[in-house]
Task: structure prediction
Amino acid sequence: MKPLNDLGFVHIFAPAEKPNSPTLLLLHGTGGDERDLLGLGRELWPGAALLGVRGKVLENGVPRFFRRFAEGVFDVDDLMTRTNELAEFIDTAAEYYGFSKRHLVAAGYSNGANIAASLIFLHPHYLAAGVLFRAQVPFRPDLVRNFSELSVFLAGGMRDPIVPRDQTEQLAAILQIGGADVSMFWHRGGHELGNDDIEAAKKWLADKVIKKLAA
Result:
């Protein structure tokens, strides 16, 4: 693994173990770091390259990807700025590490899923697919872009006290308006990530994305 900080974000890169494997862009939740989702990435797609990224914003001393005013109330200006910074980082990392954005799959949890949703809204051509656990609508886009090349897996918690069910459903609706192929899964618990989420995401990746990227 190569930890490098001079590409714009503190991050870690683990090269693919199998030829022609995708790269998973791993985006942690509040309080995580660039290593937080490495195990999840190995579970979701064994042999894939892993790119774990640490958010630049500190909230009470713990990392996040963008600022917020309160729980569920985002600083949209900061969110857009940080999303564009992440897109620039992806460009630089793709060139440095030699991976294709056409084979880049974002996997994000909570705060990381929200910036992944923002990345899709602003830069849909940067990803082949997204696996978003406990995501909500990051902002209301003035223009819904063309998401027809994207496959997105959304996993919400039926008893999530942080992300209301209708937020996940609204995010799915926006993506579908843009033509994305959206699949939804409901974890029976709350905001925590469960084994059922992971198994459902693995099956979805095997059924939808592996075939897509191999075509």
The CA atoms of residues 69 and 75 lie 6 Å apart. The two ends are 29 Å apart (CA to CA). The chain has one domain: 2-214. Helices lie at 38-44, 76-97, 111-122, 165-177, 195-214.
